[in-house]
Write a structure and sequence with these properties.
It is a single chain. The chain is mainly alpha-helical and 285 residues long. Helices cover 76% and strands 0% of the residues. Helix 1 packs across helix 11.
Length: 285
């Protein structure tokens, strides 16, 4: 069950990142974040009302609130790093986010077996290579590295926090709803500041209403991924769930290959193969 839900997480996050990346080519990144998360919050609110999820309110919701605060900061740091530096450096470095939940699992007493340790090492190596690391070229700005590390720390922290936000299915819906509301509030505030400083909230041609289905997909896929990861981490070792869920860069690369006909570099193809091998080792371990 852990492997299934964690791999589903990587699939959903990978597709959400791919969709978000396409949308930010035409629409400001902050607007994409705010609108997609607002749609997800509206859908989650309806689910919470329908399932009576309000009964799951309790102290654990503070974890969801904290995840909602950290998530937009991590995402915006990641987008900014991509704008400042080469993707071949930023994308692989951001996968260090897996170190946070894995470290939490080890602190809590999880001790993966030898085969699982090998699987973790192989899978993480594969994910980094699948991002197409830049091995040569001009030096990267320190600010780019710093922003990427902030993003990685933030993504990993969200991994860890959302796991603790609820212990029941209905409670999980409520926790994800609180997280999304917080995301929208933080992202909306950042968007307002950006506009006051002269930034744009919409493209020159106006809001792209035809992009609403894609924005909805990005928001709902992201929230669904948070949910499946929480289930995976609660039903099995966090060390295994976190590594399997971190395979999403492989999904993004394959989606770009399938939908945009982008050719995978040899190092990316090798990384995808290693990630698959690491997944098999973790699943059988």
């Amino acid at each position: 069950m852990t492997a299934f839900f964690a791999l589903t997480t990587s699939l959903l996050w990978g597709l959400a990142d791919f969709g978000g990346g396409l949308l930010t080519r035409r629409t400001p990144a902050l607007t994409v974040v705010v609108v997609s998360q607002a749609i997800a919050a509206a859908v989650l609110g309806a689910i919470v009302v329908a399932t009576g999820g309000w009964g799951g309110a309790g102290p654990r919701l503070w974890f969801a609130f904290a995840a909602g605060l950290v998530g937009p900061v991590a995402l915006l740091s990641f987008y900014k790093a991509l704008a400042l530096g080469p993707m071949g450096v930023v994308s692989p470095l951001a996968t260090l986010s897996v170190a946070v939940p894995v470290g939490v699992g080890l602190v809590l007493g999880e001790r993966p077996g030898l085969l699982q340790v090998a699987g973790i090492a192989v899978a993480v190596t594969g994910v980094v290579l699948a991002g197409g690391p830049q091995l040569r070229g001009a030096p990267v700005q320190r600010r780019t590295i710093l922003l990427t590390l902030i993003a990685a720390l933030g993504f990993g922290t969200v991994f860890a926090l959302i796991t603790e936000a609820s212990t029941t299915v209905t409670g999980l819906f409520l926790a994800l709803f609180v997280q999304r509301l917080t995301n929208v509030a933080v992202g909306g505030a950042a968007l307002a500041v950006s506009v006051r400083r002269g930034g744009r909230a919409v493209p020159e041609g106006g809001f792209p209403w035809t992009s609403l289905p894609a924005l909805a997909f990005v928001g709902l896929a992201d929230v669904a991924a948070n949910g499946t990861y929480a289930v995976a981490a609660q039903h099995g070792p966090v060390t295994v769930a976190a590594v399997l869920a971190s395979l999403y860069p492989v999904v993004t690369a394959l989606a770009a290959r399938g939908f945009l006909s982008e050719r995978l570099r040899a190092i990316q193809a090798a990384g995808a193969g290693l990630a698959l091998l690491g997944t098999l080792l973790l699943a059988t371990g």
